[in-house]
Amino acid sequence: MSKYDTICAVSTASGTGAIAVIRLSGTDSHDIARYIFRKNGNTLNVNEIEPYKVYYGEIFDPVPDDKPMIDDALVTFFKAPHSYTGEDSVEISCHGSEFVQQKILELLCVRGCRLAEPGEFSKRAYINGKLDLAQAEAVADLIAAQNEAEHRIAVNQLKGGFSNELRDLRSKLVDLTSLLELELDFSEEDVEFADRTKLNDLLDTALKHIGKLTDSFRMGNAIKHGIPVAIVGETNTGKSTLLNAILGEDRAIVSDIEGTTRDTIEETFTIEGMMYRFIDTAGIRETTETIEKIGIERTFKKISEADIVIGLLDGTKSVKGIIKAWKDIVNRVNLLKQNLIIMVNKSDIMDATKMFTLNDDYLDYMKSTYEKNIENHGGYMTDEYCYSITGMDLYDIHGLLTFSYMSAKNPEDIENLKSSIRHRYTDMPDIDGNTTLVSNIRHFEALTHAKESLEQVKNGLENKLSADLLAEDLRQALYHIGSITGEVTNGEVLNNIFSRFCIGK
Ligand SMILES: Nc1nc2c(ncn2[C@@H]2O[C@H](COP(=O)(O)OP(=O)(O)OP(=O)(O)O)[C@@H](O)[C@H]2O)c(=O)[nH]1
Ligand SMILES: [Mg+2]
Asked: Are 378 and 322 part of one and the same domain?
């Protein structure tokens, strides 16, 4: 299999469509396409072909004597290096009959084309320097994007936003390495050229940069697979009713029997361009029933994995019961990392005066928690201190815990809840701005390795390790960063990446 052979594939979705696009790329692509194409009954002359011009004519089978027409088609020729792959290439737009598509591929193969492997066009684009590896992966992400947020990440990566950031990072580290390597040349003389404080500062900047990128993975990954929203609470609070109302379909079984939902149910739903994965869970209660116990264990696991937790309380229960259920949920949520939305459900049938008592009790509880926090932090739990460890001030944290009332049977309440869920993330610049979000696990792992190597350099500096050992760790970090854009890579990794593309891309 030579990288110079000419490949072909149907690039549009498989099956019948109005039109289909067949793509050829490689040294002989123009000749092979010319061989089966006639314009006004004549084959195009090599010298006559104008690239980037669309030719209208017929695809025909040149073998039988009567040279039958196969289809009406539009053909465009692209000249290296100005094509997607960087090679000579051709695009044939034909009618979307599966028979026509197959017939054209067959004619091309008889003339010397080979059927392309998945992602082979993009792989060639990468090999020919048209795209770096992260950009090629963005092409696959762009094709797979199902909502606005996913689309935005892919476009940013495709435009080279991520690659530029990595290039920045790399050049910082290259500077560091060359400073250290200079010392190696003079190792006999025991000199230190590189100012250690400056090295340390540079390292800190690089580590901070990588840290920002690895931190963004949780969000980037969530956007790709849907931001997980767990709906949790005691049995019969209306979790399944809420899931159905959000989805607008009867997905989960609803009944007034406690413990109806045994296993978790997950469905994605897009709110204003952002995909969420709603998870209905088994209601939490004391039980000796084995299956239900397993279900409740799953609920706890889903709570810990969720980005947003909707804690649903049953407004028809006693004040004491509601407060207890609420505390049980709050205690299972990590408020520093997760968003908690507490909702008291069944407002349509609950006694409204209870709302006042609930809020008073709640305030009492908050007050005692607040005081406990002050004790825990040596008596100086100021807003600033709280902000420095949580990124939120105390008031916001309290706000997150405030009770809101709703009825899962009231469509208006459901719309409000949806917009409140969406609102949780619009404040984050990462999503609505042009900030890079890492959404690919391969990139995340490479960055994590790079970070580990840099941390070793930092430790080494503190322990006054010799320049050659420091330089070695730095080179490791450079290697990992380079592997993301494909500056350093191996065949196996490449095959692995491109084999996940669709054929024709
Ligand atoms: N009046 C009223 N009834 C509700 C509301 N939400 C749920 N219900 C009723 O409450 C009962 C329990 O609802 P489910 O949605 O099955 O409750 P669940 O939390 O999924 O219960 P488990 O699966 O057992 O944990 C059903 O009879 C629902 O019709 C509401 O807002 N108002
Ligand atoms: Mg249920």
From this structure: yes
